[in-house]
């Protein structure tokens, strides 16, 4: 079974996903969800989408931007305000600052960390990559750095 949803409508996406989860949990099997959306930004920092995208289409799509749409809906329902948003921004900025500080004071991880908690059994290709990362870290520790990747 498949469902198509406006991927820029947070409430619609939530509802479609909720139904799919309920169906799966009750033994009804998987659901393919196609969320139709529009990439507002460049693919990467090396990409300049203005070279190949019509600026009028991009401007029109910004009117469908998910956060602005959700904000407008919540404000219209009396469930959100500028004051609440300012407080949320403040709380988020404080949390980011705390986490950045914690990261900057943490000990560096060894190269194995990027392979942990991915699979019950690491596939052969990733086992090879882990070994290669270990060899690189060992070479670095032997004179070309601190041994961390």
Keywords:
5 helices, mainly alpha, two-stranded parallel ribbon, 149 residues, 54% helix, 2 domains, 7% strand
Global morphology: extended
Number of helices: 5
- Overall tally of domains: 2
Order of strands, widest sheet? 1-2
Overall SS class: mainly alpha
Description:
The chain is mostly helical and about 150 residues long. The protein folds into 2 domains: about 1-105, no CATH class; about 110-145. Helices cover about 55% and strands about 5% of the residues. The protein contains 5 helices and 2 strands, in the order βαβαααα. The chain has helices at about 10-25, 55-60, 65-75, 80-105, 125-145; strands spanning about 1-5, 30-35. The protein has a two-stranded parallel sheet. Strand 1 (about 1-5), helix 1 (about 10-25) and strand 2 form a beta-alpha-beta unit. About 0% of the residues are buried. The mean pLDDT is about 95.
Layout of helices and strands, plus pairs?
Blueprint: E1 2-6, H1 10-25, E2 32-36, H2 55-62, H3 66-76, H4 82-105, H5 124-144
Parallel strand pairs: 1-2
